[in-house]
Amino acid sequence: MIKSFLQRYFYIILLLLFSAIFSIFIFDLDGNIKNIKLAFLVSFLSSFFILREFQDNEKIVFLLTFLAFSLVVYFFSKIQSSIDFEFFSQNSLLFAIPFFILPSVLLYIIGEKKTIYTSSFVSLVSYFIHKDFSLSFIWFICSFVALISLKKARRRISLFKVGVFYGLCGTFLIFILENGFSKSFLFLFSSLFSPFISVGLIYFIERTFRILTPFYLFDLQDFENPLLVQLRKRAPGTFHHSLFVADIASSVAEKLGVNAELVRCAALYHDVGKIIRPAYFIENLKGLEKHLKINPPLSSKVVIKHVEDGVKLARSYNIPERIIDFIREHHGTTYPEFFIKAAEEENPNFEVRYPGPSPRSVETVIIMIADSCEAALRSFEEITSDKIEEIVERVIAKKMEMRQFDNAPITLEQLNKIKSATIETLIEFYHPRISYSEEKIKYYLNLKKGKYKQEEMEDKEENGTNSSHTNNKYSDGMDGKGENGEGAQKRKIKNSE
Questions:
Q1: Which pLDDT score is estimated for 436?
Q2: d(CA 53, CA 336)
Q3: Where are the beta strands (DSSP E) in 268-329?
């Protein structure tokens, strides 16, 4: 009974304990019982309501941040009260507290919304310890400045740039509210020094707890990553396919407003299992040669095995589990259709499927669709916009028929958006190319000189109609229309490869 009680009210008990410690800090500095009671009530009640928005792990982060920052403010306040600084004015040392660390680190651990809650709470509640309203207000405003500036940061160097901007904003506010040179100097100094601590903390946390921060994702996308180097060397066709899928999927993810960096990174690793047996996959040039030496059922199992191999390889290279989820789920519980149909010719009861599970996130659904569409389109020499639309619709319909989206938190509306975005992206990628034949170049130069314009005017006077056969004759590859004057023919979209 006691155990169940502790489990149920664990965070409330922990919050009461931390609020009591917070009150002890105030008592040691102030000694006023009324202030201690008020501080305890404000800290406990406000944090109690804030914690309702947090998950279990995030609650621990919030409470530890509250306790750690209270301890830092208390420590600086004790130093300020016990040592007489001739150069610094009253409470100046408190402005050296590296508050920038708090929003810059929490943003990548618990997200933007919850970092706003935590930063606001800590900056305002700490007033009970340092008794300087201007300082709490500056921290509160500057935390928003840091969060807005870091929102799209992908490289760690961005923390240092934002630290400078954060320091200048704080210095400006200090001159307005305090007009103190020493406070401005200390705040700016701490803002320039804080990013060094932030970078170290973020690196330690992301590597220890495998949290996929934008910086970690950026590092994983480095083509010099040992696993990607192996993929490029041993399975060059698969590597090229992964690059193409990454471009398609990340573009679709951006249009849908989901995590495009995660999608792009996962797409680069989704087929790493093909490193083990690269010659059994058609994109690596020798695909069919190996399969001709074994029977179709074994070919099916070899192809399916690349998912299991990919999971093992990724773990051996310390790839985060969130990326490994994409390796497991990008085929779901489908089957390699080509070899399954061939195997059924020999044994109608033969059945084998990818181990799965089916996609469990919108991001994985995007990669599943992009991967299948790219593989299907690769088999066509000439690709039109109608062909792209047909392939995408067929792929999505097939996946839905096989119930591959049942475990993903995705609606039909989102699925339609993915379909539209995929079609639009593929059409952008397979865009028309200009022909470089001598005939086309000659036509282009003559067109610039106005030769055909003069001929058209002469034809117009003789026939009374606008003759455009000359332009149409050479238009293939320049305006997307067909040859031999067939202007009504649909635009051809040449394969970008």
A1: 59
A2: 44
A3: none
